[in-house]
């Protein structure tokens, strides 16, 4: 199975007990199985596992929201370009950037009664779908489509429905 190439930068706050790189790559492969436009090794994603302060600063600068959030996604390609990029045999094209906040992710996982690893996997899937052009803020139909893809990708990984 092919998936986007992930260039991963991990802040030490995430710890070393989990192989975050392997987790992210499994999430990308599962997402590519349910969103075939991502099933191309010539798409590149920058994934940063950051601390809350870094995500807070980015959220304030780029979204005018003065707080950290669980995941930020910054697409570099329009949806039409993502669909076209898959057929390009050239050098990898930058799909975009994903940044996860460790503290927010950890707190949300605790609130949901799940592991940080499971929640981080969901956030990587969620963010990759955003980079592919899916959105949950443009209406109920789009939100349902995106959530359905998330459920399918997570099920491939043996993870429960995060929306149940």
List keywords for this structure.
17% strand; single chain; MetalPrtase_cat_dom_sf_prd; Endoribonuclease YbeY; alpha/beta; 164 residues; 6 helices; 48% helix; four-stranded mixed β-sheet; YbeY_CS; Collagenase (Catalytic Domain); globular; rRNA processing
What would your notes on this structure say?
This protein is an alpha/beta fold and 164 residues long. The chain has a single domain (5-156), classed as 3-Layer(aba) Sandwich (Collagenase (Catalytic Domain)), CATH 3.40.390. Helices cover 48% and strands 17% of the residues. The chain has 6 helices and 4 strands. It has a 4-stranded mixed β-sheet, sandwiched between helices. Helix 1 (20-34) links the parallel strand 1 and strand 2 (43-50). The protein is globular, with a radius of gyration of 15 Å. The mean pLDDT is 91.
Mean pLDDT: 91
Low-confidence stretches: none
What is the level 1 CATH name? Alpha Beta
Number of domains: 1
Question: Whole-Å distance between the termini?
Answer: 28 Å
Which outline best applies? globular
- The name of the CATH architecture is 3-Layer(aba) Sandwich
Q: How do the strands of the widest beta sheet line up side by side?
A: 1-2-4-3
Rg to the nearest angstrom?
15 Å
Tell me the layout of helices and strands.
Layout (H helix, E strand, L loop, with lengths): L4 E6 L9 H15 L8 E8 L1 H12 L7 E5 L3 H7 L7 E9 H11 L3 H16 L8 H17 L8
Parallel strand pairs: 1-2, 2-4
Antiparallel strand pairs: 3-4
Cofactor: Zn(2+)
Organism: Novosphingobium pokkalii
Family: Belongs to the endoribonuclease YbeY family.
